[in-house]
Amino acid sequence: MHDSPLILAIESSCDDTAAAVLSGRTVLSNVISSQKVHQKYGGVVPELASRAHQQNIVPVVHQALAEAKVHQNMLSAIAFTRGPGLIGSLLVGAGFAKSLSLSLQIPLIEVNHMQAHIFANFIEEPGMCTPQFPFLCLTVSGGHTQIVRVDSVSRLTVLGQTRDDAAGEAFDKIGKLMGLPYPAGPVIDKLAQQGDPTKFSFTKSSMSGYDYSFSGLKTGAMNFLNNQQQKNPQFIQDNLQHLCASVQETIVDMCLEPFLRAAKEQNITHLVLAGGVSANSRLRHKLLQHQNDGYTICIPPLAYTTDNAAMIGITAYYKYLDRQFTDLYITPQSRYSL
Ligand code: KG4
Ligand code: ZN
């Protein structure tokens, strides 16, 4: 029935327990269980994340197989996220994948989470554009902000990255200062639609080369909000939509400036977005405007921007074609560079 390899992929690097089944480059199922337990803490609590993964992983995998209408005996390989991520969370996915690979006697494939965010763009789906090599990818998530030059499936070069906070972290931390729930990124995106992005201005920091720094923006926003609240205790409530629009505009511009400069200097015309923050409507809109400057732009569907297992599965598919299997002694890595 299926000519292409059937891969079960597991993602458990942070606070989402996810499983997906792919037939070649086609996603048959993509199940995500987002852990609500962290919301009241305003950020991910690693110990609670590992425990929740342990509870969620079996039902999530069962659901992914059932939705794909694939029996485990039909699988060609098992893939899992090796890193980067929270070690306790990664251990749950790795242990589960190893056990299944051993019991089914099928190959095990380890995947780098950051490569997977980029490769989400190779998923085959109607209306989705497939990036052409060489392309430049801006990966913006809660834990990372990177500009990656991709020359082939196996040649990825990080040209620049954040030296402190990630772009998603900037959204989440500034959102927290404004009393918004975690993760604040999507909430800011929504509230910003009714706000004026020019109402407030925040200082943008810029780094040498193609690197990023977002921690100064967070401190600047904190000082600004404190000063304004001393004059008007209702300042945040009175201006929430304008504040969201202005903060969002600043983060989006800070993300795009080095990315577009890198594209020009590297003479690359194919541009790609990846990672949770690539769900941001303003970032998508502002990057797409550059199509008029001769750039071809690929942006993954929303379902494949934030953490998911389909992106692990598509990366594993290319490794499967290349017979890049791993043994059962492999261990997860909390820090794992591209
Ligand atoms: O890729 P991801 O799911 O997890 C990591 O690997 O970090 O990214 C999560 C991040 C969070 O910081 C979240 O606030 C941000 O992506 N995010 C957004 C939007 N949707 C998710 N940020 C801005 N606008 C959005 N629409
Ligand atoms: Zn991620």
Give your account of this protein's structure:
By secondary structure, the protein is an alpha/beta fold. It has nine helices and ten strands. It has a five-stranded mixed β-sheet with strand order 3-2-1-4-5, sandwiched between helices. Helix 4 packs parallel to helix 6 (215-231) and helix 7 (235-266) packs parallel to helix 8 (281-288). The model has no long low-confidence stretch (mean pLDDT 95). The protein binds 5'-O-[(R)-(carboxyoxy)(hydroxy)phosphoryl]adenosine (KG4) and zinc ion. Zinc ion (ZN) binds at residues 113, 117, 141, 275-276, 307.
Beginning-to-end CA distance, first to last residue? 35 Å
Tell me how many strands there are: 10
The unreliable regions are: none
What's the Cα radius of gyration? 20 Å
**What are the secondary-structure elements, in order, as H or E?**
EEEHEHEHEEEHHHHEHEH
Q: What global shape is seen?
A: globular
Strand order of the largest sheet: 3-2-1-4-5
What fraction strand?
15-25%
Q: Compute the number of helices.
A: 9
* Average pLDDT level: 95
The assembly state of the depicted protein chains is single chain
Q: Could you name the key traits of this structure?
A:
binds zinc ion, alpha/beta, 5-stranded mixed beta sheet, 338 residues, globular, binds 5'-O-[(R)-(carboxyoxy)(hydroxy)phosphoryl]adenosine
What's this, in brief?
The protein is of the alpha/beta class and 338 residues long. It is built from nine helices and ten strands.
Q: Secondary-structure map with pairings?
A:
Layout: E1 6-11, E2 16-23, E3 26-34, H1 46-68, E4 77-83, H2 87-104, E5 108-112, H3 113-119, E6 135-140, E7 145-152, E8 155-161, H4 167-177, H5 184-192, H6 215-231, H7 235-266, E9 270-274, H8 281-288, E10 296-298, H9 310-321
This protein binds 5'-O-[(R)-(carboxyoxy)(hydroxy)phosphoryl]adenosine and zinc ion.
Zinc ion (ZN) is lined by residues 113, 117, 141, 275-276, 307.
